[in-house]
Amino acid sequence: AVVSTQSGHYGRGKKLSNLVDDGAPDEEEEGPPQFPQPTPAEKQEIDKRTIFVGNLPTTIKLKALRKLFDEFGPIDTLRFRSCAISDPKLGRKVCMKTNRINENGLSKNGYVVFKNADSVTNALAKNGTVLEDRHIRVDKLIKSRDETKQESTCSIFLGNLPFSVDEEDVRAAFGECGEIDYVRITRDKETNLGKGFGFVKFKDSSGPSLAMKIKDHVEVGGRKIRVQKTKSKITLGNIKTKKEKSTDCDSALIPLL
What we know:
Shape: globular
Order of helices and strands: EEHEHEHEHEEEEHEHEEHEEEHE
Strand content: 25-35%
Largest sheet: 5 strands, antiparallel
Distance between the termini: 27 Å
Number of helices: 8
Helix content: 10-25%
Radius of gyration: 18 Å
């Protein structure tokens, strides 16, 4: 059974500043237009070939995103999401084409659709790669129940985060608890500001236990935050509803109350 979640040459932890472009504006999407809209079955097949790439620097362009992942197989389409635009009245498409990007935005997200589903597993090796001082997050859109349950045992929920929070500050705050797989902050799709909550996933289940021991002493951005363990939420309908409201790749986690 599968559960829908939100959805080389460069080693993990190495800086890839040569992949960030300056100059000409870049469009938000690259690839053939999708008309008509795919059926649910077609959409699931596409999702199996898709990776989510989070915490990208705002300066990265589509051609650089392609360069980062084309070693894993032929790419069908690429697109950016969650870019904070400077003039909402003009609309997102116009702002993206004319490079009207809100400079206060800390990061943006992307999606890479491969020609073959086998490329997805291999591309996960890029998770944690440092690009312009940001640890990018690479994740599947489709996960098995076992993968979702394993994710919950290695994660913590964070509340009361400042709206201006940076993923890198959260990573630094919990670095002493073990190796971190990724940090996910839920953000507003227009302003790119945080919504006050997020998650940290560790490499193994000891991370959350250590995080709970220091929870009363952790501050991010000068603000004391709330730390809780998580549990898996694998009801397909709930996950899809959550995905539609979020700008991030939803990991199907909720705080353990």
